[in-house]
Amino acid sequence: MSRRIPSVALIERVQAGQPAAIGRLISRAEAGTAEAREALARIYQMAGRAHVIGITGVPGSGKSTLVGKLAEKLRKKGTKVGIVAIDPSSPYSGGAILGDRIRMTELATDPGVYIRSMATRGATGGMARAALDAVDILDVAGYQTIIIETVGVGQDEVEIARASHTTVVVSAPGLGDEIQAIKAGIIEIADIHVVSKCDRSDANRTIIDLKQMLMLGLRDAPKSEWSIPVVGTSAISGEGLDDLVTAIGRHRSVAFDTESGRRRRIDIARFRLRKTAENLLLERFAQDIDACAAPLVEQLAGRTGDPYSLAEELLKLIAREETP
Amino acid sequence: MSEMLDPKSRGQLESEVASWEANEVAAFLKKQAERKSQFFTVSDIPVKRTYTAADIADTPLEDIGLPGRYPFTRGPYPTMYRSRTWTMRQIAGFGTGEDTNRRFQYLIAQGQTGLSTDFDMPTLMGYDSDHPMSEGEVGREGVAVDTLADMEALYDGIDLENISVSMTINPTAWILLAMYVAMARKRGLDLDKLSGTIQADILKEYMAQKEFCFPIAPSVRLVRDCITFCAENMKRYNPINISGYHISEAGASPLQEAAFTLANAIVYVEEVLKTGMDVDAFAPRLAFFFVSQGDFFEEVAKFRAVRRCYAKIMKERFGAENPESMRLRFHCQTAAATLTKPQYQINVVRTAIQALSAVLGGCQSLHTNGYDEAFAIPTEDAMRMALRTQQIIAEETNVTNVVDPLGGSYYVESLTNEYEKRVFEILGEVDARGGTIKLIEEGWFQKHIADFAYATALRKQSGEKPVIGVNSFVMQEEEQGIEVHPYDPETAERQIARTRRVRAERDNAKIAALLDRLEAVARDETKNIMPVTIELVASGATMGDIVERLKKLWGTYREVPVF
Questions:
Q1: What separation, in Å, do the N-terminal and C-terminal C-alpha atoms of chain B show?
Q2: B450 lies within 8 A of chain A by CB
Q3: β-bridge pairing A81-87 and A192-195
Q4: Closest alpha carbon to B426 in B203, B207, B260, B242
Q5: pTM score, two decimals?
Q6: What is the Cα B166 distance to its own chain's centre?
Q7: Chain A closest CA to B93's CA: distance in Å?
Q8: What ipTM does the predicted assembly reach?
């Protein structure tokens, strides 16, 4: 039955905040079906009210716990919260989707919270587009704050966290050198730094090193409307969570009311356009390659051609195919 | 003793202030608001619009006291600069002993009254100049000292019985002290006439400056050995300079500087007491080193408050009886971290104002920074200008005529009280959390310093904390035709040649035997390591010989970076 409802017809129900409709439209966005495109295009133009927060950090940094606690705090202030958790495919944590859900159980029954996990497996390239579509759908559904949680490993995950108004990077003590090194690439994207698990005394070291590193960057930084805070939090004692909510609130006004916020939205739009176009290109490429590749593959297998010239030739063939 | 105001006058004054707030102040604020709703000191201590006698009415008169009398709030000596102005002690150190010696001779000729020595990184860290780790660093940021021969070149022709010599050296301080003693004995000098200091404050290294060779426990033991050795053999020599300066330069607030330095002092006193030595036998020679930062009155209050806190700690916590054990004496240096590259000439002005607060705070010796120190170690010109700055304060301003001229200022006394209260709160927290060494290991102090440093960096970036030339009154097209101190690329060659000559000429069998003895002494914590070290350096052992041997026994200290 569900398949028969056209995506465009789901829009009204999404606007009314019906969870089933929200879920269905996100699934279609995730599947990337052409049928949904029209609906998603309309959704995009209706969205733009919500404050979008990207939260990222290495596996084990306590992101999901933090997201749960943060959502609770925001709920207490009456804010409706949407959560889009982007989960890496199996190599790291096959069971993480379930894990996240369990950690968020107190929230799961709250109608003011919508949690959606999106798997990255098989969604190469399309994940960013789908996730940002999901954010728009939640926005249109009336969620005022939308949290995108990603693992800060991999270009796409980092870029998604960045495609938000406010990016929060979570670090944690005791993860060991190698894992922290991976994170080096995400330090600089933070609007707010969180050091989680601050009930542990080795968190001091994490805060010290983080601040010292940030200071190096500040030395030659131009005057800016935003100072990057470092907030220590503890899910056990609840320490720092209020500070985090305050910091996020302060950054919201920078994101919405200042010139740097406007530039950030332009960057997000550029990213979004690029990702969507990339997606379309890949889709077409996947179709065309089947039509054109067979003879070239034969040549390559028989070593009568080389991969470089044959690939050039393939691209020419595809271009010819696409020109009417 | 009585309080400052009787209850009746106090009541009158307080209602006077209330009426002033309601009338004059309120009327004025209606016309023009103040620049900020709340003003703070650099340490984030809120300050009031103005202070009156009511604000210090609760201060016991004996807490303010008199100069040269417990609790020494107003100065360690009764006559202060009326007898003798502070020691003008410009630090110097570069190249080999001969290079630095020439700078010393120049500074003495310009009217400097004490010497202060900066060592290069290898010397600070315990490597000989020809160790692979020393490559490129020999004589660059300070003078290179590997052997007694270097030390002799460094202080050649200087009258050590009449000029005090300070050595900025920490993990390897005891080796330099041993060289100093060996040199004095060779020259036939009376050890009891030598005055000066080694810095030797290892705890602040773990907290802030990060120059260390060994783990904390043996490092503190080395400090203890310097203190007890000097107490018994060098009665005018300061075996330690317990330092807030580096804590401050690492980004701490003036309040943290004061409190953390006293926390370190407490550890050293406790360590020496464990040997059974009486507190009054060594405490009079403990010396301190603080920065003079940018907040003029806060600095004055800081210096006054640390004297009072220290006096109370020594008397009440350690039961000292000799007033000299309770009397805090300090060297002061203006704040290098406040110096800027843009419009570098204005560093002279910053330094002059910081120097004035050091003098009004009652320092015993002073280093004023060179205007070029944001670029490199200072040139001769920059050092002369810095010395002249002190000479102007000493000779032309008349601030030296009256002891503690800011004593009794409602504001300064209030802030001094506030400092004392906050310092003891921090010390109480340190005790409650298990003591200084445990908290260093946990990174507690380091985190507090990093927090304040980061907050300051953000305030500078946002412009909330003005830095002239950097975030305000910036000159767009600035010529920076500054001449900086040159580094002689042949320094390392000259230095290494001497070290190799010493190694070639010495009796290696004797050195080997002495190193075995060194290790035996090091293993036995009840022994003092100084005598065998003196024998070693006198026989031609290098700093590297000694440090490497002890690293095998004690290991090293490593801070694992998180990122």
A1: 57
A2: yes
A3: unpaired
A4: B260
A5: 0.87
A6: 11
A7: 28
A8: 0.74
